[in-house]
Design goal:
This protein is an alpha/beta fold. The chain has a single domain, classed as Undecaprenyl pyrophosphate synthetase, CATH 3.40.1180.10. The chain is 46% helix and 15% strand. Strand 3, helix 5 and strand 4 form a beta-alpha-beta unit. The longest helix is centred in the middle third of the chain and has 25 residues. Bound molecules: 3-methylbut-3-enyl trihydrogen diphosphate (IPE) (2 copies) and magnesium ion (MG). The site of one 3-methylbut-3-enyl trihydrogen diphosphate (IPE) has 11 residues, from strand 2.
Length: 239
Amino acid sequence: MSAARNGLAGESTGLPRHIAVIMDGNGRWAKKRGLPRTAGHSAGADSFRRLARHCQKLGIEYLTVYAFSTENWKRPREEVDGIMALLEKYLRQALRDMEKEKIRIRILGDLAPFTPELQKLCRECMERSAVYTGAQVNICLNYGGRDEIVRAAKKWAADGCPALDEERFGGYMWGGDIPDPDLLIRPGGEMRISNFLLWQIAYAELYFSDVLWPDFDEAELDRAIEAFRHRQRRYGDVE
Ligand code: IPE
Ligand code: IPE
Ligand code: MG
């Protein structure tokens, strides 16, 4: 979890070791085309699949995407149901294509409110893809940064309050063993974090783009990585 460790990896290859993405702008993409919001989410899922492959090809070790927040339950029932149906479809497809894709899948977030079927698909994807070590995608579902920190504190208390430092506390997060993101990308034009990875992005480089997520293609990702390569990460130190 140490930022310094990530920094060293980034410096040796020039590439971020871990990219996190707030997949935003699906609804506006659909609206612009006179389509229902769910059509935007479907196009967004395609974008995710394409970029996961692109990251794998580039040698990015971790891609973490924000797919459904703890706040997204506020949306109309129809939209939430549509997103859940797309998730099921994606996970079934991932199970089918697993041997070809060779990407490890992890789901981060509280799955308890999801249907038993969706929970089972999540577990199956995680278990069956655990053998792949080259590239990993982490899908944040029913995920909230504050919720994660509160749960971490509860897990620590349930463990009997052992001696704590930043690294150990980070270990109580959903993906406690995953190194922190080096680059956080938010497409869709908003300049906010919306409760994503609050603990882990302490020293991430931020990249905002006006391009809506379904239009965020390989060239856009390359642009974000190129911008990252020109950043100087100091972690509070001098040059
Ligand atoms: C992000 O796209 C996907 C989810 C939050 C599930 P939005 O649905 O937020 O798209 P906009 O921001 O309304 O365009
Ligand atoms: C963040 O996008 C959540 C996901 C992309 C899953 P939102 O669209 O929910 O964020 P706000 O409401 O614009 O902050
Ligand atoms: Mg949005």
